[in-house]
Amino acid sequence: MRQITVAAIASATAWVIGDQLVFSGGLVAAIVCALSIRISLYKSVREGLGQIVGTAIGAGVALLTVHYFNFGVIAIGLTVFLCSVVARGLRLGEVATVNVPVTALIVIGPGISGSTAQHRLASTLIGAGVAIVFSYFSHANTPAGRTVNQISRVGKRSAELISEMAEGVAAGITQKQAGNWLAKARLLVEEIPTLRSQALEARQYARWSPLAGVDEAEALYVQGVAVEHMVVQVRTIARTLFDSTLDPKRKDSVDREIAYALSATSYAITAKIELIESDYSGNEVDNIAKDLRLAADNLTEELLARAEQLPRSQFVRCISLVSQMKIIANSLDESSPALHNVQTPGEPTSAKVISLSPVVETTKLSKRVWLGIRKFLRR
Predict the structure, then answer these.
(1) Is residue 54 part of a domain?
(2) Could you tell me if 18 and 57 lie in one domain?
(3) Given pLDDT bands bounded at 50, 70 and 90, which one contains residue 50?
(4) With the CA atoms of 306, 308, 310 and 316 taken in that order, what torsion angle do they form, in degrees rounded to the nearest 10?
(5) Contacts of 13 (CB under 8 A, 6+ apart)
(6) pTM above 0.70, yes or no
């Protein structure tokens, strides 16, 4: 309701400002504002800038088509086609790829003339600007707060799933149960792009906004990567348990120990999420990870003691559970070198608004042009 209300107020404000500053510019400004406003200031800035650039190029091409072919079938078709090509070339994302040709069509609407086109382009700038300003109020939380919410939600779902696995293994695992766990774990993995995108937004926002702490944003980004690694291990645990139900030689003699270890894993994740939601110290996190590693070591000792009684395939799968528990422990206290020494990819392409930086691409293009000029002059 907050986002809907803010979008409505923003569009109404764009209408008023557009009508005051540009002749009959209220409608275009309101439409562009409604198309550009997003859940956060960071995303609206990128969406707004991308739409302004794309629409300016698209409208320029559209005016040329109208000049040569008049306003009709050919002009409309060429406008939509060329605007879509421009939007794809700039990699503005799926939403902006639709918005750019729509806005360009508004600019070259019926009754187009040179002055009318200028008025509508100015209205486009006003609408995008109002959307950028009002997007700051479209969500109650800051980017850091939204990141904490994402981490908390994914972490709690992971802990609940592992707890469900522990209860199922203790009661007697079935193939149907294990299949349901694996399906839920796959859905958890699908949350990773959203989580990474939000964590990156918090970090980028903190770099230019004085309202956010850079250290806090960087810490949240690392925690987001740690949760991503943890979720992958949860899916691997679910897959391991599912594969165990397909083994005809499997014995249930170690199920109780596995259930206890999974229960300890669930408790550790829950405890860490509760600490993230509040102020916590490093010692508390270290104790949580230490207890989980101890539970993994205890399971290892039990498995080694019964190694001769278990089929080799089952023993290997059980040992892999120990490895996955320790990786989760390393993610909980963020001690794994994989979190710090390996560069994490940026925002997933599916979540980006502008996939390529206009500044970077322009710099590359200018360098190529300059090198070409130098080669030509040397000849």
Answers:
(1) yes
(2) yes
(3) low
(4) 90
(5) 33, 130, 134
(6) no
